[in-house]
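Title: Prediction job returns without error message
Component: structure pipeline
Severity: low
Priority: P3
Assignee: unassigned

Description:
Job completed but the reporter wants confirmation the result is attached to the right record. Sequence as submitted:
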Amino acid sequence: MSFLYKYIGPATLEKLFDKPEHFTVKCSLPKNFNDPYELFLTLNFQEDPDALAFYADIVGELPQVLTTCFSRSPAVVPMWAHYAQNLEGFAIEVDEEELSKAFPESNFGDVDYMDAPRKELSERLHQALMTLKPRHVHFLRRAVFSSAYYTKTTCWSYENERRMVVNESEVRYVDGMSLLDVPVGCLKGMIAGPRASVELQEKLRAKAVQIGCKFFQLNIGRSSATPYFISNDGQCYVFDGGRLKLADNSCCKCNEPIDLGINECSWCQITDAHRLDAARRNPYRMLSHYGLLDSYIEGVVAIDREIARKRRESE
C-alpha cells in the first residue's frame, strides 16, 4: 500500500469537502507552477544547431497537461511552511492504489531531481536524426514528455514529490479552475499542522470521524529535528519513509519518540533541583546580581565588532 500526502492551507478545508461523497483537489498546468524551470530538464540545449532545430520541429512546445502534485512524506517541515500556511494548515493522506482505480486514465510518477538533462535523451535525438524513422521519433517524443513532467532541479528535492498527470476527461471546470473530485474512500488520514487553530483541529477530527479515516496531530519535538504524530487516541506515530507507524517507544509525559529502555525524554527528566542548580551555576546570573551584566555584554559586543572589522580588512 502506497500513501501520498497533499499539504493544504487552513482556509481550503470547506472547499476541499464541498460534497460528502468526495473531496476536491485542484489541478494546474505546469506553466502555472511555482518553478520557473518547469518542463525545462529535457535536453542539453548546448546541442549543435542542426540537432536542436530537428528537436524543435519534432517535439515543438511541450503540451500543457493538467497535473496535481503530492509528496511521499507528511514530515517535510518546509512543505508545511510553504503549502500549509506556515504550519497552520493540514495535510491529507491518500491511498495511491485507490486513487489510480478511481482515475484509470491518469498517470503517476515520482519526480527525479537532477541539475542536468539525461544523456539518453541526446542519444535518442541523434538516433532519430540519423535514421529518420517514425518509431525513433515517437520514442524521442515519449521520453521527452516523461522527462519534462517527472524531473526537477535538485533545489526542489526536499518536496519528495510524486505527480498525478490527469486526463482532461476526469476533471470539472469551475470559474476557470480545473477540479478533480476524488472519492472519499481514497482518503486514509488527516493531519493537523502544529500551529493549526483549535477550531481547525476540531473540524478535522469531526471530518475524519465522518469519513472513517484516521486523524493525527503533527508535533515538533524538543529532542529531535524530526516531527512526530499523535493519533486521536493519544498514541505516538512516526513516519518510516513509507507510512505512519506506531513509535517503538515514546516519553510517558510528552509522548515524543525516545530510545527503547527509557520512560522519559531528557527534557522531562529535568527536576526543580536541576533547574535550581543550573541557575546557581549560571555566570550571567552572577553578573546580573552584582549589577555588572549590561556593561559586560557591551564590552563583549565591542570586542566582537573589532574582530569583525579586522577580518574584513584582511580579506
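Comment from assignee: result matches the submitted record. The mean pLDDT is 90.
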